[in-house]
């Protein structure tokens, strides 16, 4: 595991975007596994800047997002599809037909999960972006006695709904369920880019990366992956210096 700590968010974003842009330069039809939330935004902004400067093209890139809320109306600004369009896809030359986000409004969610897994099985993700929840979740794989390998519907924990309430007018509006890629699919990515920002993530990041491997801290499973790059700002990295 390669853990990099940065003094500024700007440097973190530049290195993160550089890793992804180099991959796309050498493999124009790279497959990206994408995350939403606040952690990847700065890297997406830097990728947009690199695209605008002509250093990288997303024309042949394919992408699969980790997760999507269940039941938010299509076009709602907090759906993860809207997030991806606003934060990245609308600003680069990616073909939106080549971008997939689970459909949280599918009439048959179980069938949607199966279709997503079938697509992932064909795809082989080159780089998987990940943030980490305060409780150690990755995607929406919440701490539990057992974890799912494949895509599934999950009941969001109260702490996750509370953490995400900042994006909604009130906690009541935060969906209670989501569709998420499973830990098995995440661990199949050739490379994982885990991003951690802020002091409030310091403890869980340290536990996940150095503590016991346990389904109660889903991100701890990343310790079993051979190619994880961790990008931390200095606040999120502070427990590594204790
Ligand atoms: C987002 C996702 C989540 C977030 C995590 C951290 O697609 O799957 O696991 O990465 O909740 O969220 P932020 O980055 O907002 O702290």
Report the principal-axis shape.
globular
Look at the structure and give the mean pLDDT. Answer: 97
Structural class: alpha/beta
CATH architecture: 3-Layer(aba) Sandwich
**DSSP, total strands:** 10
CATH class categorisation: Alpha Beta
Q: What string, H for helix and E for strand, traces the elements in order?
A: EHEHEEHEHEEHEHEHE
Uncertain regions spanning at least 5 consecutive residues: none
Terminal residue distance: 19 Å
Give the helix tally. Answer: 7
The largest pleated sheet is described as: 7 strands, parallel
Lateral strand order in the biggest sheet: 1-10-9-6-2-3-5
Q: Compounds present?
A: fructose -6-phosphate
* CATH fold-level topology: Rossmann fold
**How much strand content do the residues show?**
15-25%
The radius of gyration over CA amounts to 17 Å
Helix content: 25-40%
Number of domains: 1
Description of the molecule:
This protein has 242 residues and is α/β, with parallel strands linked by helices. It has a single domain (2-241), classed as Rossmann fold, CATH 3.40.50.1360. Helix content is 31%, strand content 17%. It contains 7 helices and 10 strands. It has helices spanning 9-26, 41-52, 80-87, 109-123, 158-164, 183-187, 202-210; strands at residues 2-6, 31-34, 62-65, 67-69, 99-100, 127-130, 152-155, 177-180, 191-196, 228-233. The chain has a 7-stranded parallel beta sheet, covered by helices on one side. The longest helix has 18 residues, at 9-26. It is globular, with a radius of gyration of 17 Å. The model has no long low-confidence stretch (mean pLDDT 97). The structure holds fructose -6-phosphate.
């Amino acid at each position: 595991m390669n853990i990099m700590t940065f003094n500024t968010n700007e440097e973190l974003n530049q290195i993160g975007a550089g890793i992804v842009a180099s991959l796309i330069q050498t493999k124009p039809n790279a497959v990206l596994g994408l995350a939403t939330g606040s952690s990847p935004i700065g890297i997406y902004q830097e990728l947009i800047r690199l695209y605008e400067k002509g250093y990288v093209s997303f024309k042949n890139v394919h992408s699969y997002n980790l997760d999507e809320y269940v039941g938010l109306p299509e076009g709602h600004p907090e759906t993860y599809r809207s997030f991806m369009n606003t934060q990245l896809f609308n600003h680069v030359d990616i073909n939106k037909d080549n971008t997939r986000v689970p459909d949280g409004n599918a009439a048959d969610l179980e069938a949607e999960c199966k279709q997503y897994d079938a697509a992932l099985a064909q795809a082989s993700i080159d780089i998987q972006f990940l943030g980490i929840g305060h409780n150690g979740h990755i995607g929406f794989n919440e701490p539990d006695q057992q974890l799912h390998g494949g895509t599934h519907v999950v009941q969001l924990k109260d702490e996750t709904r509370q953490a995400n309430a900042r994006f909604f007018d009130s906690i009541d509006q935060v969906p209670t369920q989501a569709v998420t890629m499973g830990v098995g699919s995440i661990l199949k990515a050739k490379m994982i880019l885990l991003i951690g920002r802020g002091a409030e993530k310091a403890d869980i990041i340290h536990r996940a990366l150095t503590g016991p491997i346990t389904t109660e801290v889903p991100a701890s499973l990343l310790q079993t992956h051979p190619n994880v790059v961790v990008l931390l700002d200095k606040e999120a990295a502070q427990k590594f210096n204790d």
